[in-house]
Specification:
The complex is a heterodimer. Chain A is mainly β. Chain A contains no helices and eleven strands. Classes of the chains: A mainly beta, B mainly beta.
Chain lengths: 116, 110
């Protein structure tokens, strides 16, 4: 019963280094998302994807890139990490919303990233 | 998507019902009301959602006013494990993008 799995769970980066966060879901969901959460704040959407091969910008996309080469995976990349990107990152997935029933988005357990 | 307003924090005694209010006065006809919660710094957990009618599941009940401008999440018998931040979110389902506010921090006490 994996659901949404994020790797790595913890990472410390030096300023200017690059890294990729991997999100994998085993529920065959079309939609996938990357959020970040800073202390005392709600989650903010970075990028999202409505299907394999598609990506779109969310609320705070600057400094991040994403790819969705396979339906089950959604990668979040930091090309040149900055201290302002120190945060907790959450991946999520869900089916398309239906007007008659709505839908449910499922979240991973988070990836703690510190940039020094 | 419509904006929501929630109290910053609430307390509830263990075993009592926790009633968490949410105002969404600008909600449109096709927007659902969703509730998620976040325990400590874990990933948000889905609780319940509704459009017009009241809804109940194994976790909670959702009461939506007739004009749909506000709703209340009810945890019928709160336990210490229900201590969390509760988010009320309204969205249409277009790309299903959730917009999180700062939520209500519910503290359940003995």
């Amino acid at each position: 019963n994996a659901g949404v799995t994020q790797t790595p769970k913890f990472r410390v980066l030096k300023t200017g280094q690059s890294m990729t966060l991997l999100c994998a879901q085993d529920m065959n969901h079309e939609y996938m998302y990357w959020y970040r959460q800073d202390p005392g704040m709600g989650l903010r959407l970075i990028h999202y994807s409505v299907g394999e091969g598609t990506t779109a910008k969310g609320e705070v996309p600057d400094g991040y890139n994403v790819s969705r080469l396979k339906k089950q995976n959604f990668l979040l990349g930091l090309e040149s990490a900055a201290p302002s990107q120190t945060s907790v990152y959450f991946c999520a997935s869900g089916p398309p919303g239906r007007r008659s029933t709505g839908n449910t988005i499922y979240f991973g357990e988070g990836s703690w990233l510190t940039v020094v | 998507d419509a904006k929501t307003t929630q109290p910053t924090s609430m307390d509830c005694a263990e075993g009592r019902a926790a009633n968490l209010p949410c105002n969404h006065s600008t909600i449109s006809g096709n927007e659902y009301v969703y509730w998620y919660r976040q325990i400590h710094s874990q990933g948000p957990q889905y609780i319940i959602h509704g459009l017009k009618n009241n809804e109940t599941n194994e976790m909670a009940s959702l009461i939506i006013t007739e004009d749909r401008k506000s709703s209340t999440l009810i945890l019928p018998h709160a336990t210490l494990r229900d201590t969390a931040v509760y988010y009320c979110i309204v969205y249409t389902g277009t790309a299903s993008k959730l917009t999180f506010g700062t939520g209500t921090r519910l503290q359940v006490t003995l």
